[in-house]
Structures are given as C-alpha cells and as structure tokens.
Amino acid sequence: MQIIHTADLHLDSRLETNLDPVKAKERKRELLLSFDNLINYAKNNNVEAILISGDLFDRPKISAKTREYILGIIEDAPMIQFLFIYGNHDFNMFQEHPMGLPSNLHIFKDKWETISFKNVDITGISGEGISPALYDNLCLNRSKKNIVMLHGDITNLNSIPLSMLKERNIDYLALGHLHKYQRGKLDDRGIWVYPGCLEGRGFDEEGPKGFVLLDITDSSIESKFIPFSKRILHDIKVDITNCDSWVEIRRNVTLKLTDIPQSDMIRIRLVGEYDLSLIKQNELLERSLNQQYYFARVSDESRLRINPKEYENDISLKGEFIRNVLASKLSEDDKNRIIEYGIKALMKEEI
Ligand SMILES: [Mn+2]
Q1: How many angstroms separate the alpha carbon of residue 60 from the centre of ligand 1?
Q2: How do residues 144-167 score in pLDDT, each as one tens digit?
Q3: What is the pLDDT of residues 243-295, one digit of tens each?
Q4: Pick from 314, 296, 305: which is nearest to 336 by CA?
Q5: How many angstroms separate the alpha carbon of residue 10 from the centre of ligand 1?
Q6: CA of 93 to the centre of ligand 1 (A)
Q7: Which residues, 6+ apart, have CB-to-CB distance to 112 below 8 Å?
Q8: What confidence tens digit (pLDDT) does each residue in 211-242 have?
Q9: Ligand 1 centroid to 7 CA: how many Å?
Q10: Were both Cys, which of 198, 227, 258, 291 would link to 208 (CB 3.0–4.6 Å)?
Q11: Residue 70 Cα, ligand 1 centroid: separation in angstroms?
Q12: Could you give the CA distance from residue 225 to residue 69 in angstroms, rounded to a whole number?
C-alpha cells in the first residue's frame, strides 16, 4: 500500500512579504495548484491515502473560493482517502460548515481515533500541544503497522514530548509544523518524520520542498522524500571581501547562480567586508537579476572596513567626520551606515 504524507501547505497565505501584489496572487494560485498536482501524482501512482498533518490552510478563515476549490479536488478523487488533522493555523476551520464535506475526507477530532486499512492503522488527533494525559490513552495494536499523525514541535517539550511516544508500537510518526523535511529515530521500532511544506513561501523556507511517499508491506514501511515544488527558494551568501569593483561583485554573484533555474526565487546576501572606495550597484544588480529569475532580492549585510588609525591624524572634514562617528555610542551597524552615507555625501554621490 502506498501513502503520501504532507503537511504545512498553508494555502491561502497572503505571500506579500516578499512579492508584489501581482506575483503574490500568482504564487497563491501556484500553491493551490500544487495540492491539485499532488493529488494527480497520487492518482497516477496508486496512492491510497494522503495524510495531511496540519496547517493545510494558513488561517481558520479562508475565502469561500479556496475552500470550494480544495473540497472540490478532494471530492473528485474518490479513490483516495484524505486523513487530516488540524494544525495551529487552521484549527477547527471546518467546524463552522461541517455539512457538505467530501465523504473521502476524514478530519480527526481532539481525541485519538484510528482509521484502519488492510495491514495499517492510522491514528491521529487534532491541534498543537495536546494535553499530556492524552498520550497515555494512545493504545496501538502491536501486530499492525502503526502510523500516528500529530502537529507540533518535537524540540519543544510543551508541544510534543517525544519521550511520551516511545515504546507505543509506532512505526511512523507523521508530523507537521516544522517546515523543513527531516526525520529521526523514535525508538527501536519507529521513526518520526516532518515532510516540510509542499512549496516554499519565504526565504525562511528555502531549499527543496515536497512530500514523503510511504510504501508499506506486511514486513516494513519504506519512506522517501519526493521533491515536488514548482519553484525552489534559494538563500545565497556572496562574500564580497575581495571585490574591488561592482563588476567583481556581479561576477561572484553569477558564479553562485550557475545551476539555478530561472523559474526559481533567489535572495542574494552580500557579506564580508569592503573598502570605502568600493562603489556598489545593488539596486541595478537586483533589477537585472529580476529580469532573469522569477524573483530576486539583493540584501546587503556586508560591513565597511575602516581602520580608525588611518584617520587619527587626518585633518580633513572626512577625517573629523569619521573620528566623530567612530567615537559615538552608536551600534557598529549604524556607524557603518552613517560613515558610508556621510562619505557619499561628501563626494556628492547620490544617497
Ligand atoms: Mn503549524
């Protein structure tokens, strides 16, 4: 039997932190389509169930359009069972309209419940940070393959205390909440897995995104990560320490982008130290990257290299200005910016 494990799709996210309104709307549609594509993958690969471990939606109140779209594509795949637990973002969102839910969509409530397939029991409970007493009520049939669905953070004892789930005959703990794919050993019998989100939304969700495909036989559960996102977000550091001109910066940036498809989204973070003489062209660099990639941003985290000794005896206005700023109680970051802008002003440059 084949099963898909997904979570944290955060459908109906606003997505306007990074993107302009037009692209945000487009990306919002892409996220909805990714769920449709996942269902098509399931249909084409004889997947019998899709487990959604919470945060299918970004918030409990979503537009009627999104709700009808998602329920429609679920209903249109009657050969697949959809097992869903609420996360912290979409908690109880279907409670207001419990009527008209597709018959192949099962929503777990706030008590353990088990759905049985041939040799597999799938047990789940909704919500993040369930009460500790509930863990003691988790009783699984040791002669079956057991999958348990939960939403929360296993690195936070108040969310999911992993030790409470050991030695309970779990084979596969199907988690949601952390947005990066990761897995680990639960006990001698089982593993825990976060599939991560299906599509990255911001640069805190960079790297390959997808779902986990489980292949279950009487003797084993094999599971593997399947990269599936339409676009990948890349967060790329470029060290400009040895760059003497903006062209060298551009060359270093280009080198880091060699294998990245143009349909992806990139953030370039300039790091390292630079001299006062370096004139950057960050805005133009960002613009030109935006002509090549779906989305590009250049953020400048590099630091001005200033040796106070060089200005100790400099009697010019520049020397006086730099000495004053360096002696002030401002943060290092502010000092850098002020010196940079001040020098540009003295050189009659645009700020
Ligand atoms: Mn969550």
Answers
A1: 12
A2: 999 999 999 999 988 899 999 999
A3: 999 999 999 999 999 999 999 999 999 999 998 889 899 999 999 999 999 99
A4: 305
A5: 9
A6: 14
A7: 123, 124, 125, 134, 137, 138
A8: 999 999 988 999 999 999 999 999 999 999 99
A9: 9
A10: 227
A11: 19
A12: 26
| Distance from residue 9's CA to the centre of ligand 1 (Å) | 10
| CATH H-level, domain 2-227: superfamily | Metallo-dependent phosphatases (3.60.21.10)
pLDDT of residue 293: 97
Residue 299 binned pLDDT confidence (cut-offs 50, 70, 90): very high
Q: Give me the pLDDT at residue 98, please.
A: 65
Cα(92) to centroid(ligand 1), Å: 13
Most confident region among 14-18, 58-62, 126-130, 242-246 by mean pLDDT: 242-246
Please answer whether residues 274 and 242 qualify as being in contact, where contact means their C-beta atoms are separated by less than 8 angstroms: no
Please report, for the chain, the start and end positions of each structural domain, with discontinuous segments joined by +. 2-227, 233-346
Ligand 1 centroid from CA 20, angstroms: 25
What are the tokens at 114? 């088990």
* Contact assessment for residue 203 and residue 233, using Cβ atoms and an 8 Å cutoff: yes
Going from the Cα of 282 to the center of ligand 1, the distance in angstroms, rounded, reads 35
Rg (the chain; Cα; Å): 26
C-alpha of residue 89 to centroid of ligand 1, in Å? 6
Instruction: Kindly give the distance from the C-alpha atom of residue 98 to the centroid of ligand 1, in angstroms, as a whole number.
Output: 22
Residue with tokens 């050969």: 79
pTM value > 0.70: yes
Sign of CA dihedral 7, 13, 18, 22: positive
